User: Which sequence fits this backbone?
């Protein structure tokens, strides 16, 4: 079980919310692409769950997120580089007080097929891109259903926990060109897919009866080609993170958005 103790400030035991257990599930937008500590699942020190856990002084922090994860990987074992990885829920205490989940973009190879088919220079072709975009549109309902079912499974696993679905940071701008990402028409098409994903997640959260943090909306103006980017385009700017993933500023921004929800759970835990 991946169970980490998060140290609080020095002082009396009242400095920490007694008994608060925070768990995180999800893919590489959760496990992180910035900071130190890469291992099989690429959980790095700059990931937003670690920042949140420190900010709220969680007594226990269970992070089961893993790069490349799908909704299926949360409830069933997965394979990473020829090695078996337990279902993410297996590493989450059933007594958790709050659980954040960031998942969906790898289902049906949604984002990867677009990244490689439309943007990565060595692999992109019009045929591959058109296929990926068509699949994204036709498959979004299935992805929403999978996310909803996964959230329900998380709630059943940890009945007293507040479960929070966390969205994805924006990569493509809402309008205008983004030369560092790709051809303008493809960028615009991907921006539409990002919108669809955010809407699907919002609906899935509502169906499962959990809260949704709309990171996509909050990151407007912070796309990968903006003056203050929270994600990288096809180059990792200044070596900050990896391509098409969050920069450190993005992880910090998501942490700031999520922290109030986790802090509320911390207050509930203090009250017993």
Assistant:
């Amino acid at each position: 079980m991946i169970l980490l103790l998060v140290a609080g400030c020095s002082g009396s035991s009242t400095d920490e919310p007694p008994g608060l257990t925070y768990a995180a599930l999800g893919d590489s937008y959760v496990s992180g692409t910035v900071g130190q500590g890469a291992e099989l699942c690429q959980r790095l020190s700059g990931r937003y769950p670690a920042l949140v856990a420190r900010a709220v002084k969680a007594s226990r922090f269970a992070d089961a997120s893993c790069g490349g994860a799908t909704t299926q990987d949360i409830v069933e074992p997965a394979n990473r580089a020829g090695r078996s990885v337990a279902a993410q829920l297996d590493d989450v205490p059933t007594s958790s007080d709050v659980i954040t989940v960031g998942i969906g973009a790898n289902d049906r190879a949604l984002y990867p097929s677009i990244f490689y088919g439309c943007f990565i220079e060595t692999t992109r072709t019009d045929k591959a891109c058109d296929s990926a975009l068509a699949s994204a549109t036709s498959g979004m309902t299935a992805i929403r259903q999978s996310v909803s079912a996964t959230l329900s499974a998380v709630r059943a696993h940890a009945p007293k926990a507040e479960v929070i679905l966390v969205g994805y940071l924006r990569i493509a701008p809402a309008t205008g060109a983004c030369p560092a990402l790709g051809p303008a028409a493809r960028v615009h098409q991907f921006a539409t897919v990002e919108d669809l994903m955010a809407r699907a997640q919002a609906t899935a959260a509502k169906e499962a009866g959990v809260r949704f943090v709309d990171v996509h909306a909050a990151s407007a103006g912070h796309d990968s080609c903006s003056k203050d980017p929270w994600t990288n385009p096809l180059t990792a700017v200044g070596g900050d993170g990896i391509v098409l993933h969050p920069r450190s500023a993005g992880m910090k921004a998501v942490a700031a958005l999520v922290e109030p929800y986790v802090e509320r759970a911390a207050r509930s835990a203090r009250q017993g």
Q: What stands out?
A: Residues 126-157 form the longest helix (32 residues).
